[in-house]
């Protein structure tokens, strides 16, 4: 009967390999709570005849439970992980399935499956067990269990994927590309002093950060080069510090004395190159402060390196300001730091490619800056580079550019016009291609709490709304991924008014949080647990005054043009400065 199942399928699935519609046996099932009345969920113990998992979640239509010992075909499923008191727990979420043979026709467990553990999943053995009986497996000699790491690790036949690494096992070898490397940095505190550098690694399964300290930093700093591929083994893994590490991995690595790193001298192309998701410079006007973006542009201008002392750390810092332009005929300021500022060569207007630049704002204008994790390249051999260079050489260098970094705020020396809300209507703002900016001191008259929150992609650099699959998973169409969780984001509609009238405006998460005094996550959890208390958070903002810096743009809705006003920045009213501005206006009227 064992031939009725897809032997070894569960191991391959939990290793992250693709398995097409495998057949497995449901040994035990227990109904658990479901978030939707249209589906029922069962926790199951499943077997493929060779291996079994004790934590599977099976989603079924209401009133159609699966019998124990049934054979089912998995049509749509995803491997995931949850945290419990014992640490991370791997689970299998079965979203769509088909009963092949009902349990009453079988009535027994097929084979003698071995329960899958982290050690088995991460082992370098083959995907079939050593034994098929209930007797304990015979312990193999150490030399036969895995490749000896005293020999060249490049000779290993089995490689591990980055997304499969955990602190619970240490016999692994990865083959990965260095995508970014920091400067060598030093530190000094009460516990001593030393040096360190970090670098980012990527394979076809994911990415991870690795850090070297003291002697290890000296040993590997010059050896490890960006874009080269290396075999790496025996690093220490620990939970990633998300305050400094924005990579999409819950772990990070540290190089130790036993670490082995060997360069892969024959790059066969199986380790992917860095992938970019370029955002046009003009679209950065709509990005929220703190977002990380991939940008490509021509360096039109570059300043000299500036040196100054940080007030907070008393350390000397170096930066260089460059101006980027692209085919959207828009420019933006980019700040480079440290060695990136020192080594930047602006000769012949190079094409600049940045992965993970941080969106910032100063005086109401947008800008970009690099982080330790940002990757910057000049004139890379990619199609987008050739296209933008051809545009600039033929016409772009002569085009007028809209400066996205131009200051548009501040009392006394601001460049954005002060307007009353009636003036915005009377002057017909919003008809320019990029929209028109203005600022106004206004009072919040009404905040709509309905539909002010939405469930967004949980990744750091994506705020796209997710689709609830009603099986415990949420899908982000932008990332083409499914997640067992989400994050709350705000998109608040509110009515503001001044002496001349009132206007509905839209406020995104970062500025809405300033107004409401709480984070989107805090508000979302409150609304979930107590809707009245959540509504009260929104109502508490009524009748508060702010300086609203806004963008007005005419948009089409069902072939009808309407004025849409988005708040790009909110500031508390500095009445001393604002009164000074009013006095200036009064004096101008008296001339």
From TrEMBL:
<keyword id="KW-0238">DNA-binding</keyword>
<keyword id="KW-0862">Zinc</keyword>
<dbReference type="InterPro" id="IPR013955">
    <property type="entry name" value="Rep_factor-A_C"/>
</dbReference>
<dbReference type="Pfam" id="PF08646">
    <property type="entry name" value="Rep_fac-A_C"/>
</dbReference>
<dbReference type="GO" id="GO:0005662">
    <property type="term" value="C:DNA replication factor A complex"/>
</dbReference>
<comment type="subunit">
    <text>Component of the heterotrimeric canonical replication protein A complex (RPA).</text>
</comment>
<comment type="function">
    <text>As part of the heterotrimeric replication protein A complex (RPA/RP-A), binds and stabilizes single-stranded DNA intermediates, that form during DNA replication or upon DNA stress. It prevents their reannealing and in parallel, recruits and activates different proteins and complexes involved in DNA metabolism. Thereby, it plays an essential role both in DNA replication and the cellular response to DNA damage.</text>
</comment>
<dbReference type="InterPro" id="IPR047192">
    <property type="entry name" value="Euk_RPA1_DBD_C"/>
</dbReference>
<dbReference type="GO" id="GO:0043047">
    <property type="term" value="F:single-stranded telomeric DNA binding"/>
</dbReference>
<feature type="domain" description="Replication factor-A protein 1 N-terminal">
    <location>
        <begin position="5"/>
        <end position="101"/>
    </location>
</feature>
<keyword id="KW-0235">DNA replication</keyword>
<dbReference type="Pfam" id="PF16900">
    <property type="entry name" value="REPA_OB_2"/>
</dbReference>
<dbReference type="GO" id="GO:0006289">
    <property type="term" value="P:nucleotide-excision repair"/>
</dbReference>
<dbReference type="GO" id="GO:0007004">
    <property type="term" value="P:telomere maintenance via telomerase"/>
</dbReference>
<keyword id="KW-0479">Metal-binding</keyword>
<dbReference type="Pfam" id="PF01336">
    <property type="entry name" value="tRNA_anti-codon"/>
</dbReference>
<dbReference type="GO" id="GO:0000724">
    <property type="term" value="P:double-strand break repair via homologous recombination"/>
</dbReference>
<dbReference type="Pfam" id="PF04057">
    <property type="entry name" value="Rep-A_N"/>
</dbReference>
<dbReference type="InterPro" id="IPR012340">
    <property type="entry name" value="NA-bd_OB-fold"/>
</dbReference>
<feature type="domain" description="Replication protein A OB">
    <location>
        <begin position="281"/>
        <end position="379"/>
    </location>
</feature>
<feature type="compositionally biased region" description="Polar residues">
    <location>
        <begin position="125"/>
        <end position="135"/>
    </location>
</feature>
<feature type="region of interest" description="Disordered">
    <location>
        <begin position="125"/>
        <end position="151"/>
    </location>
</feature>
<feature type="domain" description="OB">
    <location>
        <begin position="172"/>
        <end position="259"/>
    </location>
</feature>
<dbReference type="InterPro" id="IPR004365">
    <property type="entry name" value="NA-bd_OB_tRNA"/>
</dbReference>
<feature type="domain" description="Replication factor A C-terminal">
    <location>
        <begin position="437"/>
        <end position="581"/>
    </location>
</feature>
<dbReference type="InterPro" id="IPR004591">
    <property type="entry name" value="Rfa1"/>
</dbReference>
<protein>
    <recommendedName>
        <fullName>Replication protein A subunit</fullName>
    </recommendedName>
</protein>
<dbReference type="InterPro" id="IPR007199">
    <property type="entry name" value="Rep_factor-A_N"/>
</dbReference>
<dbReference type="InterPro" id="IPR031657">
    <property type="entry name" value="REPA_OB_2"/>
</dbReference>
<dbReference type="GO" id="GO:0008270">
    <property type="term" value="F:zinc ion binding"/>
</dbReference>
<comment type="similarity">
    <text>Belongs to the replication factor A protein 1 family.</text>
</comment>
<keyword id="KW-0539">Nucleus</keyword>
<dbReference type="GO" id="GO:0003684">
    <property type="term" value="F:damaged DNA binding"/>
</dbReference>
<keyword id="KW-0863">Zinc-finger</keyword>
<dbReference type="GO" id="GO:0051321">
    <property type="term" value="P:meiotic cell cycle"/>
</dbReference>
<dbReference type="GO" id="GO:0006260">
    <property type="term" value="P:DNA replication"/>
</dbReference>
